[in-house]
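Objective 1.3, modelling of assemblies. Example input:
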Amino acid sequence: MAEGQFLKAESPQEACALLARHGGKARLLAGGTDLMVALNLRQSSPEVLVYIGDSGLNYIKEEGDNLIIGAGTALSEILDSALVKEKAPLLVETISHMASVAIRNVGTIGGNLANASPAADSATALLALGASLKIVSKGGERTVPVGQFFTGPGKSVLGADEIIQEIWIPAQAEGTKWGYRKIGKRKAQSLSIVSVAICCPLNGGTCKGVRIALGAVAPTPILAVGASALLEGKTLNESLINETAKAAANATSPVDDVRSSAWYRRRASEALVRQLLANMSA
Amino acid sequence: MYPLELTVNGRSCQVAVDFKTTLLEVLRDKLFITSPKVGCNTGDCGTCSVLLNGKLVRSCITNALSAQGKEIITVEGIAKAGELHPLQEAFHENYGAQCGFCTPGMILASKALLDENPKPTREEAKEALSGNLCRCTGYVKILDSVMAAAEKMGGPQGS
Amino acid sequence: METKVVGQRVTRYDGMAHVTGETHFVDDVIVPGTLKIKALRSPVIKGKVRRLDTSAAERIPGVAGVITAADVPCNAFGIIPDQPVLAENIRYRGEPIAAVAAVDEDTAMEAIHAMKLDVEEEPYVLDPVEAMKTDAPQVRPEGNIFTFGERNFRQIILGDVEEGFGKADFIVENEYLHPSLEHAQLEPMASLAVPHATGKLTIYTVSQALYFHLGMLCGILQMDPEKVQCKQWAARTGSSWRHNAGYSDINYVGGTVGGGFGAKNDIHADHITALLALKTGQPCKWRWTREEDLLYSTFRGAWRMNIKDGITKDGRIVARQIRSIRDAGAYSSLNPYVVDKHSYLAAGPYFIENLYVQGYCVYTNKPPASSMRGFGITPATFSTEVQMDRIAEKVGMDPWEIRFLNAYRKGEQMATRRVLNSVALVEVMQKLAEKAGVDLPEKLKSMTSMERG
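Predicted structure (tokens):
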């Protein structure tokens, strides 16, 4: 029998205390869809598992202008939530293309973010939605916009004794159009080769504060800030869309890897941004 | 070592596990329930699928202790007193199994679908089973089996 | 006529077991006290094992036994017995060098990590075209190209292709590349061996070829002390499976295979599992990880096919020249057989009077390739059919018509000298067109396989 501790945290605060006590020897376990794979492959050998699957992090609620999702909420719960469908349909659409039923039933949104893969699908959506993360530790709490959370492939600003407690999604302006598309090697159960999520608030037909997010095309999920700036105050038209799409592709820094090539990712980024914006202008 | 209590196919079970034992290991190695398979051990193929408190999960990446006190159903547990579940009948009659390795997981994924959506379209069935791989059949007869089972199990129109 | 079986729906005899979860695959067979096996696999692509110290591994509590090349009675197997069970001269990264049986997989892995391996690396070659050059690193002592009789390729020859090309109005020449392909059968490689007090062995196997492998195992394990020495016998028979004695020493239990598609036509785990069972005196099970299966099990090898066709302006292929190179990987396995089958049928189901096929079987320092559905013919078919479309394009003819014109007719002779009696390609294409909603011209609708009209 393997030696190691399984410690069940009854609250996020207890989880933080346990992480602080055990330091680098401990890993957080929620749905386990990333961590248990690493354990099975013997790629990770923690001595302590801090289980937070039952620690009160599973909720979806509204507070003022914000939609708040507990980090321990399973992806399938978010998918089925009428509230999320109403307030952030982009997130529902994104999750419907993630993994498969069985993985979504236990995999959590917090886990997807904390794993910090450049291809993390929920991150693309949350970037486009302008979301923030409430991060807690023994010492207190802080709020980090999703755009500042990721620092590199598999890396984030999350400290060893910190956990993501909640995701805050601000209300989207009335009449905001949105779009999402993902390309993988298969139609289902596929890691993204490229993913694009766009939120386009329209103020009387003109763009205001558009967010174009791209995944799997840079060391972290990114916002194409320069591209969306081109749209500010303008009406969508074909030549502007083409220019924006090109700018978005130029904001990427994709690599060749086992799934795809940098060349393809750059081309596909441009094509997807163009398609999604064209759909919105129709 | 930690004690683990589960209900498996209606039976109360107690086993000893360590901090990283998987639910699949508990089922196969400790309870000798061999229908969930070790196809990949990374949650990709679906042959380890079981129902955990009614939800379809990958037992190979489910930490056993996280299933403490929960209810597990494997394909051995869906037949009732000598009568096959309509899904089992449908898979048998419609040649939904060839080598049989994916079949237990496939049937449970189908059950999870029909429990939630008793009248799926073929497209919805495809989506629901998209996490279960089969290398033999090409999926057509599997989908035929699911649709046939849905019809068998379906109530009157509109219900 | 009422038939009992033909055209009737027949119940699968194993259907009930599959849908109830009763079907027992090798890993589902539970024998109390079974030890778990892990293998030490070569970290280098090519090299010699200078030193292997397994003493630390053997001392780990829970380790029941370790085997290396020295523990294998006859360390060469295969239809052409050139593959070792455990390697001392490494030919591919991942090749098994040693194996351990322990109380559980974690302990077995600990033992693997505790083994001290000293390998002298050697130059290697990965590309078959490179491997064919005279100065290429040698994958095997006999050279990198398999010898078919007197030639280093399988030759199929009919007529005179150069003469044929001379008569042609068009020449169409193309190269076709086929990557290797993995079966990815859902059941990974596995084996369970149970030793008996009588000295016999029960082996639960995933084998698709029970008698091939039973014979090979008897050769590897040398169960009968009366048997001739391994080297003499292998040299004399050229293969192990023709040797009949010893079959009754192994109770070989198989037939329930979780997908194979050709992956399980080679022995992957039975030999090592059996050896550890005999050494430890306890039941041993080896279950490959999916990673091991994807990386190290046999697969459909890569091909390069060069096809040069001479065509007349009325669409007949008067000459076809094919040069195929099969990337066999490190050992023969079924590759020579695959190249044979490929060569016999490479030209396609078409009557061509001048044909020259060269099938090369080339060794490289990669895991051995072997059989996969089609056995060498699948890549050939892909290549020749794309070639037919290109010919049609060149000649300015419909792709259907090109095929109808060149299809074999009854009584015509293949390059292998077989006279064809049962020919139906024309009728099959006519039926196919009907089903696909393609309205063929009358000229094609009225053709027949019975005679060349």
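The longest strand of chain C covers residues 317-329.
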